[in-house]
Amino acid sequence: MRRRQQLKNTFYERRVYRHRVTLSILILLVMTMIVVGRYSQLQISDYDIYKTQSDRNRIQLLPIAPKRGLIFDRNGLLLAENIPSYTLTVVKERVQSLDDTLAVINEIIPLSDDDIEQFRKRLSRRRPYEAVPLKFRVSDEDIAKLAVNRYRVPGVEIDAQLVRHYPQGELFSHMLGYVGRISEREVDVIDPVNYSGTHHIGKIGLEKYYEELLHGTVGYQNVESNAHGRILRVLERHDPLPGGDITLSVDAYVQEVAYEALKGQRGAIVALNPRTGGVIAMVSAPGYDTNLFVNGISTTDYNALQNDPDLPLYNRALQGQYPPASTIKPIWGLAGLHYGVVTPTTRIYDPGWFSLPDDSRKYRDWKRGGHGTSVNLEQAVVQSCDVYFYELAYKLGIDRLHSFATRFGLGDVTGIDNTNERAGLMPSREWKEKIRGGHWYPGETINVGIGQGFMLATPLQLAVATSVIASRGELRAPRLVAAVGDGPVASAPLLGKMENVSNAQWDVVTHSMEQVVNSAQGTGRGLKAGLTYRMAAKSGTAQVVGIAAGQKYDSSALHARNRDHALFIAFAPADDPQIAVAVVIENGEHGGSVAGPAARKVIDAYLLGKPVPEIVPETDSSGPVLGALAGAEANE
Fold this sequence. Notes:
Layout lengths: L1 H6 L2 H36 L1 H12 E6 L6 E2 L5 E13 L7 H11 L4 H11 L8 E4 L4 H9 L7 E10 L7 H4 L1 E4 L2 H4 L12 E5 H5 L1 H5 L3 E7 L5 E8 L7 E3 L3 H10 L5 E6 L6 E7 L13 H8 L9 H4 L9 H10 L9 E3 L2 E2 L8 E2 L7 E4 L1 H7 L2 H21 L22 H8 L5 H7 L10 H12 L3 E3 L4 E4 L2 E2 L5 E4 L5 H16 L17 E7 L22 E8 L6 E7 L5 H17 L29
Helix pairs in contact: 11-21, 14-16, 14-20, 15-20, 16-18
């Protein structure tokens, strides 16, 4: 016992105890100082930083999409409007598991594979806390289902917005175009801020050409939200600037008449105001329902349009390139007068064919036996005498033909305020050498003399060229838009004026075109019945496939899509032109009796402003085409 007491060192134990207590107190003090220091840093030094981060979770900056501008016709008829639509959106940061959320949503309302695929693509290019569309055009029934199951899908909302709608459907499809969802390619070129609240953009047509004007400027608002991302109140709001409304020069009634005139056929009609260059009507048939494209067209609908042999998506008015055929003859007649190659009294002998000097090849007239021993310019235009224009083209030469045609806007884009216009083709020596790698031959000039061969023009170009004749030399870039908001826009720019063509020469051409309708021998004589104004016109029939020399044109032996195209140009009133029209009907065969009535209906609708009675033209007595080695003109 005594020995155990001797082993115990009380002083040592007390000293160790004091050291341990002291060390513990020091550690406790240090830890307390660290906590106090950290607390001071969070609450004092870094207060602004963490307050801002907290506010970011509570306060969000949300874009406000601008209202897209409306489009009206000249009389105030609404052509493109905005209607309410509901979109199912998801904020990724508000959901715990995206895949689970999509699965739950699919239980509530069906989602297609395309919906999910497009959603994931949009998700990859979004900004933080941005609502991403999952399903467009959500029905009222689906909205009710989601409301009942809202507790199951946090971060999922129904977004009400305005979407584009085209009340006239296919009537203005090619002119207006359509808006559609913004694609990955477009994301790289648009302003991401200005389109932050928008899911749609103009794709083609007027909607694309005037996208900047129609879209407007995005607004924004600061909102306070709860932990579930639901908006509690708006703290600050800056309203967007709506897009500008535009009014077209187009008359919807005339547009409807033109479209009905082409119903069941493939073709295009373009009508212009020769004084201003304003487009009165521009139709390509068949059309399509542009509303299908606004929120994404289904695969079934798109394939149906793509595989349709009539090509409803093809804008024939701006992109269709056709041989102008005999509609070019008044222009060549004016060129002959201008260059002094012929006079109004110059006459030629037409035996029914034409040959180049020292060449046995025969370029045949569409009329077997020819038009007689003494054909002047007026008779050549009225009866569409090929031989007269073979000889005239040969004397003028391709260089002068090319130079003169460009003054009518042929061979180049017109500059219309729309998209995807093609330039047609007015051939020249330089073009032949550069593109075809060969020399220009006289026989190719002969073909150009009747608007065939390499020569191509769009229906819009033919309307512009007709407008130049009507205005006596004023070449204007056609314009669809007449006013923006309440302010009118300037007339179409004057691209050129033919000062060195005399009034007497214009009179000869205009009178000849009038006789196409008024003369008993005119190729458009069937349109004269009931005419209350003076019309100047020219018919044309363009070959689609070549006919061997000496053979007759037999439409029954050809496939329907290999038959000749029917063309017709006209302006009226001839003494005070207010409208110029060009009509192309694919495989219509006869310009005067097929395309002519369509042009008459359009002009009547514009000048008379009332329903047009059915026009039943006389049967052409000009006979079938004979064909030629270089491609002859069909009957008019």
